[in-house]
Amino acid sequence: MIVRIMGEGQVDLSDADLQLLNSFDSALESAIESGDEETFRQALHDLLAKVREDGRPLPPDALEPSEFILPHADASMEEVRQMLQDDGLIPG
Question: Exposed e or buried b for every residue in 47-82, given b needs 16+ CB within 10 A?
Answer without folding.
Answer: bbebbeebbeebeeeeeeeeebebbebebebeebee
